[in-house]
Design a protein that fits this description.
Layout: H1 14-37, H2 42-54, H3 58-71, H4 76-88, H5 92-105, H6 110-122, H7 126-139, H8 144-156, H9 160-173
Length: about 180
């Protein structure tokens, strides 16, 4: 008897991933041409930084986000995305600085609040993590990651009942059953 493996449709096939990389590389080339044509185009620098991030090239992404910020210091997305890249390198202080600037520019930037909470949690700054996750939840009470971050911070501060309540909400809202571990 021959065992046939079935493909889990939730897992991308290698061919699909290869096609996605080819598309991203084409976008990268087009954005590089746009930047060469107009080096003052902050949106093109931002977009190219995002593509570098998607291609797992965070150093290049940081360079492009920094140039976008140099050209347009009022773009919350440029600060937010650079913060995400810094977080990738486990540079939480730099990440927090950029998330803070994104929030200053756009106080309703839920992802900046959520990611600043995560960076604070990584640094062991539990009360700021709780506060930022709480603000993210005030802006979007359907965020399982904000509940999970806050649950972890509550757990670290000994607030077990609050941690457990947030874990239950994170699990309820998450498509992934492993979004949290019980404290």
């Amino acid at each position: 008897m021959v065992n046939q493996h079935r493909h889990d449709p939730s897992i991308p096939r290698a061919r699909d991933l290869d096609e996605a990389v080819v598309r991203l590389q084409a976008q990268l080339a087009a954005l590089t041409q746009a930047i060469e044509a107009d080096p003052a185009d902050a949106k093109a620098w931002l977009a190219r930084g995002v593509v570098h991030g998607q291609l797992a090239e965070p150093e290049k992404a940081i360079e492009d986000f920094s140039e976008a910020i140099n050209l347009d210091g009022a773009d919350a997305e440029a600060y937010y995305n650079r913060g995400v890249a810094y977080a990738h390198f486990h540079l939480p202080i730099r990440a927090i600085d950029d998330f803070t600037e994104a929030i200053r520019i756009d106080p309703r930037h839920v992802d900046a609040w959520n990611n600043r909470a995560a960076a604070s949690l990584e640094m062991g700054r539990y009360e700021p993590a709780i506060a930022d996750a709480g603000q993210a939840l005030r802006l979007n009470d359907k965020s399982p990651t904000a509940y999970a971050i806050r649950a972890s911070a509550f757990n670290e501060t000994g607030r077990k009942a609050e941690a457990q309540a947030d874990i239950q909400m994170a699990r309820k809202l998450s498509l992934s059953p492993n979004v949290t571990r019980s404290p």
